[in-house]
Amino acid sequence: MLAIRVNEFGDPSVLALEEVPEPVAGPGQTLIEVDTAGVNFGDVLVREGQYFGRKALPVIPGWEVVGRARSADPEGAFAAGDRVVALLDGRGYAELVAAPTGDVVAVPDRVSDQVALAMVIQGATAWRLLEGLAPGERVLVSGAGSGVTHLLVQLARHRGAGEVTVIASSEEKARQVGELGAERVVRSDQGSELKDQLAAGLEGGKVDLVVDMVGGDTLMAMLRQLRPGGRAIIYGVAGGSPAKVSTGAMLKNGWSISGLWLGHPGSISLREALAELFELNLAGNLAPTLGPVLPLAEAAEAHRAVEARTGVGKVTLDCRPA
After folding, report:
1. How many structural domains compose the chain?
2. Spatial CB neighbours of 252, under 8 Å, sequence gap ≥ 6
3. Residues 191 and 232 in one domain
4. Is the residue at 116 inside a domain?
5. In terms of residue numbers, what domain contains 45?
6. Same domain (yes/no): 148, 51
7. Are 6 and 96 contained in the same domain?
8. Distance (Å, whole) CA 147 – CA 155
9. CA distances from 22 to 2, 3, 122, 266 (A)
10. What is the pLDDT along the chain (322 residues), one digit of tens a residue?
């Protein structure tokens, strides 16, 4: 079968289309004939050798696919031949994958491949980030160009958030999140320090929940706006520099600060999350931002689109045999 393989870490040019052995389904796995694979920023980090210590080569990137199941779920969640979406532990840029059966979910007919893929990592992350949101709470989010943020803004409104404020690094990203329902947008590209921009943008008010994917000074500026007893969830370090949070500040303010990564086994009930996300999408209440669909052979171009961080939308690869 054909797959995209990384034989040495580096820029997008190291993504090579190669013939590789077909996977064999082990216990608790389902083979899926892949139609479309999702591309995420984490795939870029895998390609560069920077993802959570994954240094083994060669490696096939990709954590999410849509395709046809070759066998039925023993519990009846899907039948052989059904169109399904799956969360993998890697090796998704390929014509055939072996997926953990518990993370294989049937896709409704009216949900497109791109939408289904956008709901796996990005949608399930947004769903999990807002799991404890109480009606009326104020939320402060970084990463206006992120697909997670685009879904999180819509989900927060659906779950009754009092106000959602998003940090944006450009006029276009600010426009996007505003159209999706963010009540306030704070620009981080206006010259003054972000902490001052946030204080002015929030008009002296404090937030109940901080959600950050950037890290570094961005997270520190956001924490200044977190109320005593508030909570913060960190799900990425896209800025490249982890923040050093003072335990003294946590104690003084009674903050709860946690991390979220979907890679932990059992970290989320994917079937439960996707059932709600698909229902909201079909009802017209949740729409991911969609980007280009590229052939598998153009994986390098797909990575360049994701790396540009322009808010291009969900980028996917067509993995069907020519």
Report:
1. 2
2. none
3. yes
4. no
5. 2-107+289-318
6. no
7. yes
8. 12
9. 9, 10, 28, 27
10. 999 999 999 999 999 999 999 999 999 999 999 999 999 989 999 999 988 767 899 999 999 999 999 999 999 999 999 999 999 989 999 999 999 999 999 999 999 999 999 999 999 999 999 999 999 999 999 999 999 999 999 999 999 999 999 999 999 999 999 999 999 999 998 878 999 999 999 988 999 999 999 999 999 999 999 999 999 999 988 888 888 888 999 999 999 999 998 866 556 789 999 999 999 999 999 999 999 999 999 999 999 999 987 777 999 999 999 7
CA distance 129 to 320: 33
Tokens for 97?
């994958």
Which phi and psi angles does 165 have, rounded to 5°? Answer: -115, 130
Say yes or no: 39 and 147 in one domain. no
- Amino acid residing at 40: N
Same structural domain, 18 and 144: no
d(C-alpha 150, C-alpha 154), whole Å: 7
Query: Which residue in the block uniquely carries the two structure tokens 């404090």?
Result: 206
Closest-CA residue to 144 (of 105, 187, 111): 187
Q: Token match 């996007």: residue?
A: 176
264 and 255 Cβ atoms separated by less than 8 Å = no
The C-alpha R_g of the chain, in whole angstroms, comes to: 20
At 84, list the tokens: 């399904």
- The alpha carbon of residue 129 and the mean position of all alpha carbons in its chain are separated, in whole angstroms, by 11
DSSP state of 23: P
Task: Give just the sign of the alpha carbon dihedral 123, 4, 103, 278.
Answer: positive
Looking only at the bridges linking them, the beta strands covering 207-212 and 138-141 are: parallel
